[in-house]
């Protein structure tokens, strides 16, 4: 009963939060940051396109725009936020059975804010790099991740085109390591906006020479190969999310040539559903 109450209040709290975000623009407002950052990269694509003959409003532009808002807000609204709150509560109650109050292994809350932000950012990006590799290696996870790889014409909005199950997988796997250093499910605006911007950038139809920084930050010229249809290895390359450095350290980087016109997708892409409802159901169907 207590969990049901928590679910209900979390649900209404989140609905109120999203309503407030839309009605009251302010500097800490995710809704308008998402719009602002998207408009910025769209403007760059229009002004300085890498693939000049790709349509300005590319294939699936509107579908991806919808995914963007769905994955950023609506999915949380329809219960993910409430559901995860209940799970966290259950998990803590479970720890309580053993007399544990939390699983914090070392407190970094006493560190200077910049050091906390940097630690959170690097640790989380490394966890995400590993989760992304899993999405490619574990067959049933790949079925969900295919939604992201079904993009045929690349552009900034493809960044947030992914199945909601990915949110569940990423959040579940990152929860325990982050809780161990004293981070709850709260996120820092700055880290979030930075990763959002680099994610949009990686998928943008623009070419920006980063110089030696390309060994640290992911970029469109590297990420396009992650989406390439034909690869020399089965499980993919360039798994980097925000940082490219993990691929260089672990030898999964691959940029054989300029990938500007490289065909994107995966084998038998033509059989993959084109509409949102069927894409969302795709990973749940029984595999032959
Ligand atoms: Zn991938
Ligand atoms: Zn991608």
Automatic annotation (TrEMBL):
Pfam families: FA_hydroxylase. InterPro entries: Fatty_acid_hydroxylase, Sterol_desaturase/TMEM195. Keywords: Lipid metabolism, Membrane, Oxidoreductase, Transmembrane, Transmembrane helix. The chain crosses the membrane at residues 30-49, 61-83. Residues 118-252 form the Fatty acid hydroxylase domain. Its main location: membrane. One of its GO terms (cellular component) is endomembrane system. It is found in: Endomembrane system. It is a multi-pass membrane protein. GO terms for biological process: lipid biosynthetic process; membrane lipid metabolic process. GO terms for molecular function: glyceryl-ether monooxygenase activity; iron ion binding. PANTHER family: ALKYLGLYCEROL MONOOXYGENASE, STEROL DESATURASE-RELATED PROTEIN. This is Sterol desaturase family protein. It comes from Marivirga aurantiaca.
């Amino acid at each position: 009963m207590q969990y049901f109450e928590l679910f209900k209040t979390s649900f209404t709290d989140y609905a109120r939060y999203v309503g407030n975000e839309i009605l009251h623009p302010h500097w800490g407002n995710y809704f308008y940051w998402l719009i602002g950052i998207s408009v910025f990269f769209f403007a760059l694509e229009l002004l300085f396109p890498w693939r000049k003959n790709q349509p300005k409003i590319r294939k699936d532009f509107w579908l991806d725009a919808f995914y963007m808002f769905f994955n950023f807000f609506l999915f949380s609204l329809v219960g993910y936020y409430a559901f995860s709150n209940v799970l966290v509560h259950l998990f803590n109650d479970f720890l309580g059975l053993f007399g544990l109050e939390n699983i914090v292994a070392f407190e970094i809350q006493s560190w200077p804010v910049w050091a906390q932000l940097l630690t959170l950012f690097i640790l989380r990006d490394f966890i995400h790099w590993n989760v992304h590799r899993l999405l490619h290696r574990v067959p049933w996870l790949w079925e969900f991740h295919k939604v992201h790889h079904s993009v045929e014409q690349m552009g900034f909005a493809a960044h947030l085109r992914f199945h909601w199950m990915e949110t569940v997988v990423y959040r579940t796997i990152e929860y325990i390591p982050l809780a161990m250093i004293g981070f709850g499910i709260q996120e820092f605006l700055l880290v979030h906006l930075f990763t959002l911007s680099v994610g949009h950038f990686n998928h943008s139809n623009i070419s920006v020479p980063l110089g030696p920084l390309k060994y640290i930050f992911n970029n469109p010229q590297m990420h396009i190969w992650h989406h390439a249809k034909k690869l020399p290895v089965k499980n993919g390359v360039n798994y980097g999310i925000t940082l490219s450095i993990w691929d260089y350290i672990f030898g999964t980087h691959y940029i054989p040539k300029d990938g500007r016109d490289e065909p994107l997708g995966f084998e038998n892409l033509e059989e993959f559903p084109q509409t949102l409802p069927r894409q969302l159901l795709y990973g749940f169907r029984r595999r032959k």
